[in-house]
Design brief:
With 89 residues, the chain is mainly alpha-helical. It is built from 3 helices and no strands. The termini are far apart.
Length: 89
């Protein structure tokens, strides 16, 4: 897959996730029994807040994954003592 197409798919996917979360928040507010004007205002505000925070969370997750790919550490895996691992039972 070309880099340009791959980058475009990644950007669209992140935006679709944020849009889906915002739409879900707005639809939940629209199902309430509030009068129409406050309902529309609250739906818009909640969609903006949820969409923005979801977009920020996705960006942070992408940064963490990118940094971990650039600098993978295996210290955790090499320093595990199998005798000290607790039993699940």
């Amino acid at each position: 897959m070309s880099k340009g197409l791959e980058l475009g798919v990644e950007k669209v996917t992140a935006n679709v996730g944020a849009a889906a979360a915002a739409g879900s928040a707005a639809s939940t507010v629209l199902k309430s029994k509030l009068p129409i004007v406050p309902k529309l205002a609250l739906a818009g505000a909640s969609a903006v807040v949820v969409g923005a925070t979801t977009k920020i969370g996705i960006a942070i997750g992408e940064a963490v994954v990118t940094r971990s790919r650039e600098n993978p550490t295996t210290e955790v895996l090499t320093k595990i003592d199998p005798d000290r691992i607790p039993s699940p039972s």
